[in-house]
Each structure stands twice: as structure tokens, then as C-alpha cells.
Specification:
heterodimer; A: alpha/beta; TIM Barrel; two-stranded antiparallel ribbon; globular; B: Rossmann fold; four-stranded mixed β-sheet; 6 helices; 13 strands
Amino acid sequence: MKGRNFSGLRDTGNPITAAKVYDAQRVDELVFLDIAATEENRRILFDVVQGVAEQCFMPLTVGGGVRTLDDMRRLLQMGADKVTVNTAAVERPALVEEAARTFGSANVVVSIDAKRRGGGRHEVWTHSGRQATPLEPVQWARQVVAAGAGEILITSIDREGTMAGYDLELVGAVADAVAVPVIANGGAGTLQHLVEAVTIGHASAVAASSIFHFTDQSPIKARSYMQGAGLHVRAA
Amino acid sequence: MVVVVDYGICNVRSVVKALELVGASVRVSSAASDLEEAERIVLPGVGAFEHGMTNLAARGLLEPLADQVLGKGKPFLGICLGMQLLARTSHEFGVHEGLGWLPATVKAFAFEKDGPKVPHIGWTEVSLERASPLFAGVRKTPSFYFVHSYHMVCDTPDLVAASAEYGGRFTAAVQRGNIFATQFHPEKSQDDGLRLLENFLQWQT
């Protein structure tokens, strides 16, 4: 499924088949998010994750509905390399430190969904973009990194699914504030957007999905475009 | 038969399916009797060092592993934390003792403020420090997938089979006799990684 601004979901097909295609295209990493798990207050779709993991001989990050150390353990055992937490970390920040101590910081990603509000400021939302929090993304990113998060996946709710480009201000503010890698997400519609997230937004990596689902751009084209722009990308 | 050691905190499934893809018959186990039967042993790893050592000890694996790998000389592959655990000590969340099979310690990446981000996550080119049958047939400058905050510092350079650059050179793979270990994840490194695993299955020590 693929949404726009975290709603209006469109079916983009079977995730397991999609994982297989991305593996064949030698993507650098697959981020698999069960976007409705927390909102629907249900358990993670472990069987789907397992199906996806079985297709991956590439790095896999899994999130959506992750609430406990047991959830994380199970996902790592199934073949996830990193697990990402969002709502559960906001509700109980100690979870991040417990996870880092158990699984190692490098395997614990905190996902932050942020929305613009007046005055050029952003706020953190949880429950798949359904609930506002008083948190400010840069502060929150610093806090979870101090607790042991090894990576931040920063998603702009305003841009997500719009293909209008990443929120470079948001990405840059977070990337410059923490010493861990930051993955930019939400808004990529052209290959130049991917480049800008790195050159202007200082992201360590870029995530995208609509551009691959709804245009004729592929991860293979993205890689060579970014290479042409002088970025360091893997020769796959 | 290859035993993939199950000590409770790992990405066991990824390693198993990659080994199976390249033709291994795999048993996931923490039983001494299985280690005894194994022709080859793989110690995978995701997780924190101390937790890894505690789990190995709690499952009574310290002695059986040493018997089979150091005593009987069975081909051994350590991956990521499974490599770091071979060191004498690690400095992750305090100083902890490792298996001590290799003269090395495990230290955090420590960079200046403008240095690279830590953890080191992603695909990085690896340079071979010497010919190794484990790298036979991989591309000249292969990229492998890394996800780690700590790295192994070897007492002697002859231990280092491959290195990589991340704010300085660091150890990407080590080899001593029948022991081979990688900081990167071959099971997640697509073609070159699968090739390395295939080489491990053929490896005559």
C-alpha cells in the first residue's frame, strides 16, 4: 500500500513480490513499514515480514507496530537487520535504550514522522500521522540518539506520497543535529530530489517508494543518476 | 552439515537461507552434540557484545565451541558480532571479556565532530589484505553491507584478511588458521556475499 500524506492508501501490490523485484534490482536496502499496525492497534504482520525477509539477500529494515523487545527480537530473528520504532518510543522513551543495550545501537532505528506547523517549525506525530505530540523533531532526534538509537528515519508527513520533493529543511535540521546516520523519507518524485536530500539535506541515505511505484524510474536508474551527480554510491 | 549457532539474539534466518541457497545443509542449534557432528560452524550475530557473551555462556556453548573450533580445527565463520566475540575484550557498554580466540580488542568508532556518522551503516568497498580462498571469485573491489558501531583492532596485522575505509582503515575480515570472520554481513551482501559463503562451504583448512 502506498498513501499520500499518510492517508488515501493505494494498493501497490503484494509486498513479497515487490521485495523480490527490489532484490533483483540490487537496491541497497529495503525498508518495510506496516503503516497501519499501530493505528489499527494490532500485532505486526509477522507472516508478511517473514515472506518479505525470505526474498531478501539485501539489508532489511522493518517497522510499524513494534512495541516491545520481544517484537524486535522476533523481527531480527526472521531476517530483519534493523528494527524501527516510532509511536512506542514516544510513549515510552526507555524502550530505545533497552533495545540498544540488547540488540546494539546499530540495529535500532527510530522513525520520526513530522508535520509542518506555522513559523517554519515542525512537530512530531505518532500513530501513522494520526496523533500530534508536543515534541519537536530535532530535540526528539537528539534525545533518542542519546538513548542509543543508531539511525533516524525522518519522514515528512506533508510531503509523503506527493512526489514534490523531500522537506529539505526538516531533513537538514535533523541530520545536522545528530551524529548518527539519517535517512530522508517522504516526497521523492524525481531523481534530482534524491540527490538534493544528500547534498542539501545532508542525509546519509535516501528512502523512496512512490517514485518507484508510480513512475518509470527504478532503483537502477536512481543509482546511476546519483553517481553522475558525484555522490558516493555502490557499484552494484 | 553446517551448524549455525543459535544463541538467541541473532539474524539466524538470514544466514541460514543464504547458506542454503549456496548449497549447504544447515542445522540451527545450541547443542554441544550438534557442534560435535558439524563439519563447519557459523557464529552469526546482531546485538550488543555483553549480551552475546552472556547468552553463549548461558547456553553452555563456551567450551563446546572452543573444543570444536580450536581443538578439532573445524572451519569456522564469524559474522559481525560473531567476529567481535572472538576478541579478548570489547569496550561496548563497559569493558567485557570475549572468547579470546584472537589477539584483538573491540573498540568504538571515535571521530571528530565533523567526522563520519556512527554507526557505520551501508555498503562499503573492501580491500583484500592478502589472498584468501574465502574471497575467491568475488569482484576486485567488492562492496559489502556493514551495520556496526564497534570494530576489531588486531594486535598483529597478519590477522587482517581485509580492511575497509570509514574515517580511517578498519578491520573488515580476519583469518587465522581455520577461523575466518567478517565485520560485514555476507548473507546480506547479494552476489559477492553469497560467493563468500559458497567459498566457506568449500574451504579446506
